[in-house]
Amino acid sequence: MSYITDSAVKFIVVHYSATWEDQKVTAADIERMHLARGFAKIGYHAFVRLSGVTEPGRDMTRPGFVEQGAQVYGHNGHSIGICWAGGLKRGHTINEGFDTRTPAQTASLIRWIDAQLERFGGDGMDPAKGPVVVGHRDFADAATQCPGFDAAVWWSAVQEQRARASRAKPAGLATLFQCIKEIFA
Ligand SMILES: [Zn+2]
Q1: Domain of 115: which CATH number?
Q2: Is the pLDDT of residue 180 over 90?
Q3: Ligand 1 center to residue 168 CA distance, Å?
């Protein structure tokens, strides 16, 4: 087992498992696949079932250190990775990847990424502040469609939606105070 320091982590990588959208795979199933490929254990740091249940993978419990993953060839020394179950659609070939995330999986992905940003810092978008959220396919040397969608664009949209929601509240209050002032003016 080798470990990397928290400060070495520059990327939070999103993967799909390249299994059928209705196939109920677990971290144990993925581990079996990875053992067959010669890995010591599951290569990801977390795995999200169709149900949204998130299972741990490589060790992240040691303060200040993360067990090095086996998830992006050539980039495991500076990244951590999460994988969600799915990506393949019935009626299509196994060479076509899709965003087949269930709403529960998307919610769990957001929760897990938030927890990592809490630990490693930043907003997942600005590399000056902390690790950035990317997809496996965003690495130039990765010949894959994984995770079937643009993870960086998706994460920016998640953050933008939050920013809008938090802006909306004070604006609403300000309008209310303005109304009250006008009523009593
Ligand atoms: Zn991948």
Answers
A1: 3.40.80.10
A2: no
A3: 36
